[in-house]
Structure formats: C-alpha cells, structure tokens
Automatic annotation (TrEMBL):
Record SUPFAM superfamilies: P-loop containing nucleoside triphosphate hydrolases
PANTHER family attached to this UniProt entry: DNA TOPOLOGY MODULATION PROTEIN FLAR-RELATED PROTEIN, YALI0E33011P
Signal peptide positions on this chain: none
Entry's Gene Ontology molecular function annotations: kinase activity
Alphabetized NCBIfam families for the sequence: PRK06217.1
Keywords: Kinase, Transferase
Organism: Donghicola mangrovi
Protein name listed in UniProt: Adenylate kinase
Length: 194
C-alpha cells in the first residue's frame, strides 16, 4: 500500500504545486479539494457542493493503494484527514503568497479577472479573503485557525517553508516518510519544522 498524505496551507502557499510534485515522485493519485468543493460552472468558484456530496465524491476517488489530497479540508473533511499517514502544512509569507496568487490567477483567467471581466468581482473578493490569512482576527481559514485545527487532528504534521521551493519541500517530505508505514501500522515520523 502507498502513502496517504494530506497537504494544506493558505491559498498561494504552494500546496497544489507540492501535491503535483509528490504525486509524480510517489506515483500516487492527486485529489485537489477544490475539484470536490466547487461545482463546475461557467464562472468558476461560484457554487459549492454540499458537504455530504463532497465527502462521497472524495471517498469514491480515494484508492486503497494510497493518495495525496491537496487543499483545505478544515471544517468539512476531518473524517477524511483521519485516514492520512501524514499531514503536511505549507506556510508561505503573505507577500510571496499574494504575488504567486496574482500571477496564477492572471495566467489561468487572463482578462476575465480584469475590471469589466465576468470574474472581476469574484477575483477581487478571493484576493481580499486570501490577504487576510495571517490576520489572527480573521474569520474563516486563517493561520491561527489552521494551527488550532492541526493540533486537534492528533496526526503527524510536517511543517514546511513554502519559500524554499517545491523541490526542497518534496525532498523534506520524502525524507520524513519512513517506510513501510502501512505494513508496520506505524505512523511516519515527521519533524516539526519551522
């Protein structure tokens, strides 16, 4: 059996990028939580699926042989996280995250997110929401909420610095995965990195 890994962090931290890299390195399927959270619509990210619908879809997509789930499950997918061997938390400082997000959204949606575009307001709201992640008083997904959530999960957490780049984070992850997790029934050792 393969590893079961959940990767989480703020928008723009490098969660999806690390998930893609590890999926290739470990030959595991990658499930992006956004694909299950949001319904496919003409204007993306406008219609949520119900929690039971998301959970059913994700359970059906998770093969027994291991998986990587990238994205946030906080507040709706805790039962899925409990099946993980390792939770990876990627932290990237605000300015770098916001720079990455702006570049990513422009690359994905181009003129649709420009003033007058059909996604302009959604994009502005998203960027505003993402910019408040490091604010301890922010409601919703925030660094404070994420840290509390990770503490409550009771699972090994590998904390990675998203400034270091995807190759460095992948090497740190691979060194933290001590085989054979499944055959021994033991959880992997995961140092609590800054």
């Amino acid at each position: 059996m393969g590893y079961r890994i959940h990767i989480t962090g703020a928008a723009g931290a490098g969660v999806s990028t690390l998930g893609q890299k590890l999926a290739r390195e470990l030959d595991l399927p990658l499930l992006d939580t956004d694909d299950y959270y949001w319904k496919p619509t003409k204007v993306p990210f406008t219609e949520k699926r119900t929690v039971p619908e998301r959970l059913d879809m994700m359970r059906a997509a998770q093969p027994a042989g291991g998986w990587i789930v990238a994205g946030s499950l906080m507040g709706w997918g805790e039962e899925l996280v409990q099946d993980a061997d390792l939770v990876i938390f990627v932290y990237t400082p605000h300015d770098l995250r916001m720079h990455r997000l702006k570049a990513r959204e422009t690359r994905r949606y181009g003129s649709r997110i420009a003033e007058g575009g059909d996604m302009y307001l959604i994009h502005e709201c998203f960027m505003g929401w993402a910019s408040r992640y490091d604010d301890p008083c922010s409601k919703g997904r925030s660094l404070t909420c994420h840290n509390n959530w990770l503490d409550q999960m009771g699972l090994p957490v590998l904390r990675l610095d998203g400034q270091r780049g995807v190759s460095h984070m992948a090497r740190q992850t691979l060194s933290a995965l001590i085989p054979p997790i499944r055959s021994s029934g033991h959880k992997p050792l995961a140092p609590n990195l800054p």
